[in-house]
Amino acid sequence: MKSIVFLRQITKIVFLLIVSIKAYALSDIEPVNLRCEYKVKPVIDVKAPRLSWELISRENNQEQKAYQIMVASSAKLLGQNKPDMWNSGKILSGSTNQIEYKGNELESAKTYYWKVRSWDKSENAGKWSEISAWEMGLLDKIEWGAKWIGYNLDSLNKNPDYHLPPSPYLRKETDLKKPVKSARLYITSLGLHEFYINGKRIGEDYFMPGWTDYNRRVYYQVYDITENLSIGKNAFGAILSYGWYSGYLGYALLVKSPQVRAFYGETPVLKACIVVEYLDGEKKIIVTDNTWKANDGPIRESDILNGETYDARMELSGWNIPYYDMRRWKPVKIYPDKAERKLQVYPGNPVRIYTELKPKNIIERPQGKYIIDFGQNFSGVVRLKVKGKAGDSIIVRYGEMLHPDGRLMTENLRKARATDTYILKGEAKEETWMPSFTYHGFQYVEVSGLQYRPDTGTLTGVVLSSVTPQAGKLETDNAMVNKLYENIVWTQRSNYFDIPTDCPQRDERLGWTGDAHVYMKSAIYNNDIAAFFTKWLEDLNDAQLPNGAYPIYAPMPMKNGMAAIRPSDSYSPGWMEAGIICSYELYKAYSDIHIVRKYWQNMKKFMQFLEQKSAGNYLLKERSFEETNPKGGFGDWLSIGKKTSPDLLATMYYAYCNKLMAEMAEAIGENSDQMYFKENAIKIQQAFEKHYMDETGKLKINSEIYGNVNGYIEYRPETGFHGHTQTAYANAIYMNLLTPVQMEVAGEKLKDLINENLGKLATGFLGVKPLLPALSVTGATDYAYKLLLSQEYPSWGFEVVNGATTIWERWNSYTKEKGFENNAGMNSFNHYSFGSVNEWMFGNMAGIKNTEPGFRKFIIKPEVPGIGINYVNVSYHSINGEILSSWKKEGDKFTLTVSIPVNTKALVYIPAKTNGFVYLNNKKLEKKLENGYVPVEIGSGEYIFSSVIER
Ligand code: RAM
């Protein structure tokens, strides 16, 4: 009896032990890639920063059931689990991103340390993450105590063609009496700056503080300069340039605008604050004030569009190191601040050197000139390593293409001089120089002034781009498609340059809104652009016009209530919707409801503008936008063939924006707005159907209404405007504006139009993005592949086989027969809009599409062509982790390898033959075929599916 009791007790203990082990078992779920406001260990000035992490685990179908965040004011406290700032406690939630800090108030200039742990699907806690951190900027402008300082050199270098004054140099020396514990540099400028401490350039960033509406806000950077300082004398030096603040912008010179440069101010100015903390805790603060001295120096001209001239003979040797003789330097001038101008931490990804390129080919030209081919079109500059006599000028001209006779083609740069000049000081050793405040879009440079043949070390291509982290990879067994993808990536790299520009080479480089929204989803698959667009959406909303319309580009400097670069620039259907579409894409891709909330009132104001335009008809009839220039806006810009009515497009965008607004309203819990926009969308769809569609489902417009009206850029009386175009159907399908029956009809019509056009596309900027997706949705994947794989004009392949290394602005930017036919004045070879086919390559060819914000839920539904591609390997690093879709077709055998991040769910569609079987990791699945696919829902993990498909 005794022993039985004993046994019972033992069993009970063992049982309790097992239960408690289970309860306290440590899961292998682990938070990694901890970020704050989309960045790893950033400096920020957001009062309730958003935290995110990704999860890893060896277990399949793993999920997060809860999390806990701890934030402390020191790493030590956090290590001891003493979160003096915030302890979230165990929060029952599956969210791993967009989690707002809810702790004690964050203070200026402090660093905060944080960690997180998650509970897995079985409610077991994982281990704590590694410690991450963020630092706060200066939260109040007053704290800077610094003045705007500058040195006006505006009267110099005024010549009839360009007014390019030299760069001011500013400096100051300070004694530091004791050993330094830590030091920070807070720095900004109106115009561009480079900053030096004791001879060393601070930071790796270029073109800071970026382009904003400087009347409203200017950004600053924060650098840890602890290592740069030493006891004793320290020298601080800055070089300023005109940049977007006071240099040339866009085509102002070309179109002979009343003002061509200095749109925000004339003199570039600097504001800096250096906070030094000595080892003993005492602080010393050095600010820009009237104790700084100024001079002009070797940079004789510097302008983003026009280039830089550097006279090495005028170098101020030793100017940025201590004990420099300052007698010839002048006092700086103090410039007033604007009370309303905000001073904020740069929220985007700064421009940095991406990589360097060696010359691929060096070609000798007449008159001692050489052309250097870098083999790749890109944004950046060249670094020179040259020798020669004092006073010799080395002149570098930049171009994207060569004329057939071998000359550098520069006509398409229009008024952008795009020339850098280096004047040698004539040293015995080689002299090295790279411009600081200009960039060019080019593949070739022409160099003159060299007394010898350059070799591959003489000129180096320096690639500059905003550092948006890589997110996607795409590879197929089709060399042309691979090259197309590479070209798309290079085009994005060239144009995501502080703002999303249209092109990097000519006198334009503006944040064109139409280009930005048609390409954005494509961009998302390639890079993490969350921070980049967080910055530009601010620019876009700052530029919202008083009537509520979003402009055709942003930033848009204004003068007397009109665009300053070209007074007739305002808004355009197809462009202005970027205010809605880009916010929506950011929300969808990164689950960013914060951005939706932030601009909700702005977006509603835009919707009111559209409503007023529709005058109660829920429709934008023909000739609804007579007030813009060009009339009706830009329409399906650079399309070829029949032109789509801009108002028909405007109406579709009107409906589409209402749909997106309804979805965003739901996301932020604005229920009445949601109802309102949803109903509006329906009403617009009905009005659209009534006005722009005949009984057979054919899209139509009344072209005669446009007759005899000058000012419609694409309207010709002979050819008119149309509704029955590829662009019109593609958009109607993509935007989901049709009933199922109409959808089917539209799909047929779209195919008919392609057939009539000998199997070719005819779309412009607005039609190209939805074209392949629309074909896919309506079951014409074979058509989509035919267009993708075509190498005949007009197609993506045509550009590739004609040597393109980036995406062209026009389908016929260059043809072998006609050369640079068209308008060499508007002919960029580095323009991403037509690269929007990338969205289809990731979303359809590889089949990765998000169905819940942030790719928390997504589908993988690869579309497999009959011929042309047998292997596709695509990954996308979402905010929830890395997704893989890799498929292979060998005869009739199909294999699909997928990888699903922890805490996400995927609906995988495996293509299969009727009556065919689908295997998962070699095990037969008992599932039914639906429209050629077997859908399988899976959680995290790696899986290999195989099936038999039609050959
Ligand atoms: C061109 C720009 C841009 C386009 C507008 C309409 O000048 O390059 O790509 O959006 O015009």
Automatic annotation (TrEMBL):
This protein's name: alpha-L-rhamnosidase
Boundaries of every Alpha-L-rhamnosidase concanavalin-like domain copy: 365-464
Species of the source: Pseudopedobacter beijingensis
Keyword tags: Hydrolase
Segments forming domain Bacterial alpha-L-rhamnosidase N-terminal: 178-353
UniProt catalytic activity: Hydrolysis of terminal non-reducing alpha-L-rhamnose residues in alpha-L-rhamnosides
Cross-referenced Pfam families: Bac_rhamnosid, Bac_rhamnosid6H, Bac_rhamnosid_C, Bac_rhamnosid_N, Ig_Rha78A_N
EC category: hydrolase
Keyword Amino-acid biosynthesis: no
Alphabetized GO MF terms: hydrolase activity
Higher taxonomy: Bacteria, Pseudomonadati, Bacteroidota, Sphingobacteriia, Sphingobacteriales
Signal sequence, start to end: none
